Every structure is written in C-alpha cells, then in structure tokens.
Amino acid sequence: MKNALLRAVSASLALAVFAHVAAPPAEAQSERRQQKQAQKKRQAPVAPISSEGPLLLQVSLNDQRMYVYDRNGLVTQTRISSGRPGHDTPVGIYSILEKKVDHTSNIYLDAKMPHMQRLTQTGIALHGGVIPGHPASGGCVRLPFDFARRIFEHTSINERVVIAPDVRAPVAFSHPTLFSQLPSASRSVIREGSAPRKSGIDVAETLLGISPAHAATEPAGRTLESAAEARVAKRDRLMAAVTRAAERRAAAAEAEKSAQQAVTDARAAARIAKTESSKLSRAAAQARNALRQRERALKRAQSRVPKNTQRVRADRLAELQDGVKQEEARVAETAADAKRSADASSKAAEKAEAADAAIKSAQDAVKTARAEGRDAASAESDAKTAVADFDRQEANRDLPVSVFISSKTGKIMIRQGFESVLEADVEIANPEVPLNTFVFTAIDWADASKTHLTWMAVEVSENSDATGEEIRQRRRGREVAELPPETNADRATRTLDRITISKEAAERIAEVVKPGSALIVSDYDKARSETRYRGTDFIVQMPEVVAKITRPTPRPVRQETVQDSGSFFWWGSPPPPRERRRAGPRHRQPASASNRGVW
Questions:
Q1: Backbone dihedral angles phi then psi of residue 519, each to the nearest 5 degrees
Q2: Where is pLDDT greater, at 572 or 152?
Q3: Residues 455, 297: Cα–Cα separation, whole Å
Q4: Annotation marks residue 115 as catalytic
Q5: Residue 452 among the catalytic residues
Q6: Of the residues 103, 140, 214, 452, which is catalytic?
Q7: pLDDT tens for residues 214-244?
Q8: Catalytic residue (choose from 103, 115, 127, 214)
C-alpha cells in the first residue's frame, strides 16, 4: 500500500513538472503567431497591378524571382519557388496554355494549385504556393498566393513566359524582318492630286514603308480585303472539292449497285445456260451410246455375210446383204444425230462459259466500283477535313500569331490559336553557326493605320556565369531586387540579319499579325514531347526535358499507433517501449497543417 502511494505521488509530480516545462514553448509559439498576424494587419495594402498591352513574364531561377513586363517596361516583380533538385524547372520559352482559378493536381496527392496557369501539357505551371526562399516545388513555379491571384487577372492565353537561370530585360526593337500587317483599303486615304498609284511591291513600299519580304507582288497589290476575298474563294474551292468527292461517291455507289445487279443477272443466266448445257451434254452422251450400239449391230450384220459367197444360196446372200445395208443406214442416221447433239452440247458449254465470264466481269465491276467509292469517300473526308481546318484557322484569325524559326531544322513554323497554319523552309546565312535565342513580341500598333507594329526583344540563354555563393547572396532578403540587365539589341539585329523568310510565309503572316504576336528565333527545335498534345504552342526547352513524372504518386497507407505498455515510468528509469506501427485500411489520412503543401 505504501509503495503504491509513493508511486502515485511520484507520477503526479512528474506530470506536473513535464506540464510546467512544456507549457512555455506552446505559449511562446501562440504569442509569436499573434504577433505575426498583428504585423500583417498593420502592413500597408498591396498596390494593385496595372498593365497595358501584352505581358511578358520572366522567371529567373538563380534569383528565384519573376519579373513582369508590358509595353511600358517593368510592371511588377515577386519572389518565386522553382523546382527542387531532382525536379528542376526546365529552362525555356513557354506560353500560357490554360488558366484555372481552382486546380487540383492529379500527380501530387490532389495538391491544391490555386490560380493555375499551365505552361506545358506534362505538368509545368505557374500557381500559388508556399515560398520558402529556395527551390522547393516539384517542377512548377510557385508564386505567393496573393500575387498569383492578382497576376491571374492580367494575363491572357498565349502570352509568353521565359524561364532561364538569368533573365534579361526586354528592349524596344525594330528590324525589316519583323512583320507588318497588310494594308486595309478602308483605312487607306489617297489624297487628291497625288501621283498615280504604283503596283505590286512599289505600292507597299511607297504607301506602307514595309520591306519587300512582306509586300504584295500581285498586279493590284494585296490588302486585307483582297486577302479576305482570296480566302472566300479558297473556301469555295474546298467546298467544291467536297461536292465533287460526294458526287463521285454517289456515282460509285450507283455503279456498285448496277454491277451487283449485273452479277445477279449473270448468275441467273449462268444457271440457265449450265442447266441447258448439262441437258444437251446428257443427250449427246446418249446419242454416242446409240451410235456405238448401231456400229456393233453393223459389225454383227457384216459378220453374217460369208467370205465365200459361192456356198450360200442367192436369196440368203441377198437377205444378208440387205441387212448390212439397213444397218449402215441406221449407223449413218445415228451418227448424224450424235453430231447434232455434240454440236448443241458444245454450243451450250460455250454459253455456260460465257455466263461465267459475265459473272467474273460483273464482279470485277463491283470491285472497281467499291474501290472508286472508297477513294471518293477518302477524298470527301480529306476535303471536309481541309474545310474544317480552314474554318478553325478562320475562327482563330482574331488571335495573335506565333512564329518559330529554328536553325536546327531550317524551318519556319506558324501557329495561331494553338493550331498549325504553315511550315516552310527558311534561309539562314551561315547555318553552321548557331543562332542566339530571342523572343520578339509585337506590343502595339505603331500608328492609326494599324499596319506597322512596335516590337520588343528579349534574349534567352540557358547558361549562367554566376557562382553558387553569388546565387545564394542574390536570393537573400529583399522584396524588390535589382532589375535584370537589358537585352543586347545589336546581337538581336545580327541574329535577324541572317534570316530570309520566304514570300509564302511572309504573306501568310502579314494577313494575321497583330499586337500580342511573337517571333521566336532559336538554335533549338520545338519540344517534340509536347507536340503530341493538342492545344499547345511552340515550347522551346533548352535543352528539351522529358517529363519525369508519368504516373500519380501512390496514396499513403494510414497507420495506427499501438502502445505496447500503458504503465507509468520513473524519472531516470529506462525509456518506455517503442511504438510499433500497424498498417490499417487503405484510405487517405487527412493532411495536417505541417504536411499540407503545394507543388
């Protein structure tokens, strides 16, 4: 009894001491949380983001910052958190492909990704998240929650996002290779008494001041209206091709129907001919048998006539010789019947063979008609696809155009509304020398004619000269960091000087170019891993990175804690038995405040 009382008192004292020791940290943590909340309330409200024209978002991996530019320059900047080691955010040029206010990851345990702006179809995006001051995401670019919400309201689909170790600020830029839109007849004003209009390239150069690479060459000069008329005519041609293919298919179906009927008729005629041929063949066989019988009867009659006629009475000899003559006459008559039957049977067999040939010919006609029908149906499907592609391109004509020139492939590729418009060869001087990577963005119309455009240029490089210590110093501290250095405009000029765009590509671009359009020039090719997805734009990864995550992360298994012993222990005594964990039913455990994160 005494021992039990001592144990109870000791346990009570131990619990009191433990509670006294553990309480201050909990109270201190609560006090610190209250101080932080009060400090946030005392902070001045964040200034709203104001932008004009298309935006360019640049993410510096070394600085762990994002800089936002519009046509007037820097709009705002913020801290970010990129991919942690092993899940590095790939360097490259991207476009905003999709925007969702509330998005849930299908890779990282249904993690919440508020104000998500998709950059690739393989899991890279901008979204709100925790910013610990170093790379910590699974490959995405995390933005502060409030900043993600505010910038979400200003960005648009297809606006460019540059991710690089070190970024450069864009600069105003102009070059003859950069595109201008076709003139509009409704906006062209011809003064009275002015000199007569020139034609073709001279008109474009005189009235618009655009380079010959982007000017019209038709006798009357190209305008937006003439280009629209040409598109109407092209669609009419495409619809005419659909109509012709449909008519071919209908004619082939009718021909197949007629050929099938011919097969049916030929088979019926063949059955009749074969029946008649079989009947006459049997009659011919019977006639041949009768002839053989008559011939045997003739031989018997001839055998009755003795060789020595001197020994036979005259009347008997005359009777035997009359019998031979009668048999010879019967043989001759039967032979004639057999010949007629054989001739008739041969003719019937020829008719049956002709009927079989008619069946084969009709069947060949059916095969030909079916092949023609398949070809016509394929041509009709291709023509309808061409019309659908044309209509999609027409529906996208109000959207900015994306142009990509790669010295690696020697191609110029044009997309609009995430749809391919044209791919053609491009001439690059000294192709063995790599091109520098630049993004040229049309930011506004140069004047009221809405023909010329103003452009800004930004250089993108996958290389960085910064050391590890320099990178750590740059990431520390400040809400507002030093601005990136400006892009070298002379280098951009030298890059475009080497490029000659074909007339076809220049004319297609001149019809649709507008503010927000972009020209990307690079020594890299577009990311082939992204081209298999619909609804994507030119993604240039430097170098291309194949997505590492190909399947969702496995769900955690809920674990239960089982205490081996529930007895008290004395201070200074051995530690209590370790807890052992037992797997429970397979279902998700609610995330706690400590492990709830966003990738």
A1: -115, 125
A2: 152
A3: 118
A4: no
A5: no
A6: 140
A7: 443 443 578 888 989 999 999 999 999 999 9
A8: 127
